[in-house]
Amino acid sequence: MGRVTVRRPVVTYARRTSRKRVDALAAEEPLELRVGGKALTVTMRTPGHDVELAHGFLLGEGVIDDVRDISVARFCEGTGPDGLNTYNVLDVTLAEGVAPPEAGVERNFYTTSSCGVCGKAALDAVKLKTRHSPAADRSTVDVDVLASLPDELRKRQKVFASTGGLHAAGLFTTAGEALVVREDVGRHNAVDKVLGWAVLQNRIPLAGAILMVSGRASFELVQKAAMAGVPVLSAVSAPSSLAADLAEEQGVTLVGFLRGDSMNVYTGHHRVTA
């Protein structure tokens, strides 16, 4: 199954002195996602939890609603230079009666590890309507719990500790309990993996959950949260203007610059208590 890290020789310079050593790099490989044998998208991701990634991606695109909407997910044959299966092609079979993805979901070429919507075939397909609106979610979270989440997320970033090169996403309860944490070279892939975990655990909609991300909060991450019914999205960095607009529209509490005991609450202030 693909490697999460790759070891590579490097030359390190410090104070004009060099030395040779071996460094660990975060693995990045393409994953082709097919639906019913038809190629849907290619994303650059860190191998591992690919079935979760597929479920989360299809949930975020409005293709599926819960775990029953997918009957089979299997890796296709595909060999690398060593003759072994690369496990880089995943084919999903939708359950009977589930409509296949619309043309607008298809990517023109591929999705990079840093952008999940830039390859959309049509701009109209970017904005989706959620079946699990978080607007009516009455859960609240204390500021101290929010302040603890970056450290709780960091504790569980095992691959980041050895490579320094991965984003992370985690689902937490409003009491601060970690449900699941996933790492990936792409922030949107990490989010897809945790949401895919929730799909497979039959936990959609994610009422009373907090989605914590290690980077910035973009439009696409707010969209994914809304599609999964997540009421609170928190990030260590800044949100974009469009992310804040969408969060307000969808009833998502959006927290940014979550560092130490300080944070900015951009939307949904009623869910944050002090």
Write the layout of secondary structure elements.
Elements: E1 5-14, E2 17-26, E3 29-35, E4 38-45, H1 50-60, E5 70-75, E6 89-94, E7 141-142, H2 143-155, H3 158-163, E8 167-173, E9 178-184, H4 187-200, E10 209-213, H5 219-227, E11 232-235, H6 241-250, E12 253-259, E13 262-267, E14 272-273
Parallel strand pairs: 3-6, 7-14, 10-11, 11-12
Antiparallel strand pairs: 1-2, 3-4, 5-6, 8-9, 8-10, 12-13
Q: The CATH topology of the largest domain, please?
A: Cytidine Deaminase, domain 2
Question: Which spans of ≥5 residues are poorly predicted at pLDDT below 50?
Answer: 119-126
CATH H-level superfamily title of the largest domain:
Cytidine Deaminase, domain 2
Top CATH class of the largest domain? Alpha Beta
Overall strand count: 14
Total individual domains: 2
Helix content: 10-25%
CATH architecture of the largest domain: 3-Layer(aba) Sandwich
Helix and strand composition category = alpha/beta
The whole-number mean of residue pLDDT values reads: 90
As a whole number of angstroms, the C-alpha radius of gyration is 19 Å
Order of strands, widest sheet = 9-8-10-11-12-13
User: Termini, distance in Å?
Assistant: 46 Å
Q: Characterize the biggest β-sheet.
A: 6 strands, mixed
Order of helices and strands: EEEEHEEEHHEEHEHEHEEE
Number of helices: 6
Report the β-strand fraction as a percent range: 25-35%
Sum up the overall morphology in one term. Answer: flat
